[in-house]
């Protein structure tokens, strides 16, 4: 069989192309640090790599949710601390007004100061960031706290003294219980679960134990309902208690016993602020724990990813350099394999 220049050229070009493909593959491995760029190159490793990437994506999502919750809790704690300062200031003023030496004018001045604290309290309870209210529960669109036509504090449209004026005590207690549990939540990897709604088995809800609740319902901060003191119905919430004490000081008909009774109620109700500050601290500590856990998990997954997808730098560079030498040598050899003929100079 006669071997022609055309056959030699075709064979040479195929060899050069094969060397070029291998060289380009090794160059990609060196540049990217990855052993393969297509799943078809290593199917089993690609399956493991996709699983690792999925876990990394989930972990990254959980960390984003944790960061959001931490930011919200930090703002909530600041607002709670400010509310606590307002109530402590009010308590000092009330004690000053309820002394034997305090005159009627002085009591009226202190009553005015208490109403100012009332106003500041209402503003702080409606604190928000990015148009999301800290103490509104799942209500993030409108200010959760308002004052109704009778001057009483309302939470998400329900008067705190008696949410359902025409409702029974049991109905009001059930509504208050629901308002106290109404809070925002995020998925932080606790195994989110869907369960039947206890109130309506035909519906489903997210199991509250499988998510992280990061918001503090405002009703838990200020209190709700009423109690009877010396035959008089008294509000349990901080705002209305401050208003009741201010009324007593303004009228001039107050007795030390009446103010003491309201002051005691205020002191008891204000303990809820401390409890909620403690709860925020507990939630923040738990999120810090979860952050550390996911940081460690991310490092482990990244290490696994390198083991599965990564190319050994030393070995890959040596192979690349060897392939580069072979490719250069093949190019040089081509000039000697295909000898010029007289036909190359014919026009």
Question: Can you walk me through this structure?
Answer:
There is one protein chain. This protein has 8 helices and 11 strands. With 347 residues, the protein is mainly α. It has a 3-stranded antiparallel β-sheet, with no helix packed on it. The mean pLDDT is 83.
Helix content: 55-70%
* Coarse structural class: mainly alpha
Largest sheet: 3 strands, antiparallel
- Count of individual beta strands: 11
Based on Cα principal axes, name the global outline: elongated
Task: Tell me the distance between the termini.
Answer: 30 Å
Low-confidence region ranges: none
- SSE ordering: HHHEEEEEHEEEEHEEHHH
Q: Give the spatial strand order of the biggest sheet.
A: 3-4-5
Whole-number radius of gyration? 37 Å
Number of helices: 8
Mean pLDDT across residues: 83
Question: Which helices and strands, and how do they pair?
Answer:
Elements lengths: L4 H28 L10 H55 L6 H22 L2 E2 L2 E2 L11 E3 L5 E3 L2 E2 L9 H13 L3 E2 L7 E4 L2 E7 L5 E2 L4 H5 L3 E4 L2 E4 L2 H14 L4 H54 L3 H25 L10
Antiparallel strand pairs: 1-2, 3-4, 4-5, 6-9, 7-8, 10-11
Summarize this structure briefly.
By secondary structure, the protein is mainly alpha-helical. The protein is 62% helix and 10% strand.
Can you tag this structure with a few keywords?
347 residues; mainly alpha; 3-stranded antiparallel beta sheet; two-stranded antiparallel ribbon; elongated
């Amino acid at each position: 069989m006669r071997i022609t220049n055309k056959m030699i050229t075709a064979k040479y070009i195929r060899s050069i192309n094969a060397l070029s493909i291998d060289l380009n593959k090794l160059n990609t491995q060196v540049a990217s640090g990855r052993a393969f760029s297509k799943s078809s190159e290593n199917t089993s490793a690609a399956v493991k790599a996709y699983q690792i990437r999925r876990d990394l994506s989930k972990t990254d999502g959980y960390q984003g949710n944790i960061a959001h919750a931490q930011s919200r809790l930090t703002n909530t704690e600041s607002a709670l601390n400010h509310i606590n300062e307002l109530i402590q200031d009010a308590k000092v003023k009330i004690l000053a007004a309820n002394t034997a030496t305090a005159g009627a004018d002085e009591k009226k001045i202190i009553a005015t100061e208490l109403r100012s604290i009332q106003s500041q309290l209402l503003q702080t309870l409606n604190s928000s960031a990015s148009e999301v209210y800290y103490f509104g529960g799942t209500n993030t669109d409108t200010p959760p706290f308002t004052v109704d036509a009778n001057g009483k504090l309302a939470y998400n449209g329900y008067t705190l003294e008696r949410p359902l004026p025409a409702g029974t005590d049991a109905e009001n207690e059930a509504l208050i219980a629901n308002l106290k549990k109404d809070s925002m939540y995020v998925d932080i990897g606790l195994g989110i679960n869907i369960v039947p709604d206890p109130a309506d088995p035909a519906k489903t809800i997210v199991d509250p134990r499988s998510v992280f609740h990061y918001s503090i319902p405002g009703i838990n901060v200020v209190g709700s309902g009423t109690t009877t003191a010396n035959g008089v119905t008294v509000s349990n919430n901080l705002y209305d208690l401050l208003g009741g004490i201010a009324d007593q000081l303004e009228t001039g008909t107050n007795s030390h016993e009446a103010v003491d009774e309201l002051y005691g109620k205020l002191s008891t109700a204000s303990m809820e602020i401390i409890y909620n500050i403690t709860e925020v601290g507990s939630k923040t500590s738990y999120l810090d724990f979860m952050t550390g856990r996911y940081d460690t998990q991310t490092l482990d997954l990244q290490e696994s990813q390198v083991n599965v997808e990564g190319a050994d730098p030393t070995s890959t560079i040596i192979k690349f350099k060897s392939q580069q030498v072979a490719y250069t040598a093949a190019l040089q050899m081509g000039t000697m394999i295909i000898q010029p003929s007289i036909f190359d100079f014919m026009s």
